[in-house]
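Sorry to interrupt, but I need a hand with the structure work. Go ahead and set the record down below:
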Amino acid sequence: MNSLFTYGTLKKGFDNPFARKLAAVSDYVGEGYFHGKLYKIDWYPGAVYEPQSAEKVYGEIFEILDPGILQELDEYEDVLEDQAASLYIRREIPIFTENQLSVSCWTYLYNQPVQDLQLIQSGIFKN
């Protein structure tokens, strides 16, 4: 499985070294969403996967051409061996495409408490 779903600072249009690197080693497939909630963490968002939720998190699907990028992105997303301490976890979840097909993609999901965070109602994180 070589697809990655991004909903935050790795999306097209974000200018940071990791977004540029992802763009260089992947092909943009299109837009998509998953069922869940999107929160404002700080200058970046965090999403929680809730398959039964009516709410959606919107983002972009990339086909990874160099699988080595995932280890670099794990560092960027603060994925640790101690899962409880990780800011995010990388998990494979179903992403729905514009034509309602379901595609399995790696996604970075927020891994800390959300009760004091601001919900992004639209499900869309903007630059």
About this structure: Residues 32 and 100 are 9 Å apart (CA to CA). The first helix runs from residue 17 to 24.
